[in-house]
Amino acid sequence: MAAKLKGLIDRTFLPGFAFKFLENKTIPERLLKGRTADVIVTMDSPPFYYRWFQGNPVVKQLERTILKFSGFKRVSATYIGPVINSTTVQRDKWTKQVVKLASKRAVG
């Protein structure tokens, strides 16, 4: 995970906002219950290789230790890659894919 993203998460998902420790409880109360997340992962390796051979580490880390810990009920992932040596046509296709995903989730 990129250091800047990790820093943002560390400063955002704080006790009192994302979760709350309760007296005599081992597991904290999840304060972001019912929310959903769409994780967009860019990479220079083929997505199938990242998911099946490398074990999908960033998405698993985000999902298990941050998002679900805070109460998110559904986490989906979109994989974009390999970015290195990609064509303008391919990058435009990915951009449209992300715009479509974002427009489906837009509030309002």
TrEMBL record:
Enzyme Commission code(s) on record: 1.6.5.2
Domain (Flavodoxin-like fold): residue spans on this chain: 2-84
Keyword vocabulary terms for this entry: Oxidoreductase
Keyword Oxidoreductase tagged: yes
Gene Ontology MF terms in the entry: NAD(P)H dehydrogenase (quinone) activity
Domain of life: Bacteria
Protein name in the entry: NAD(P)H dehydrogenase (Quinone)
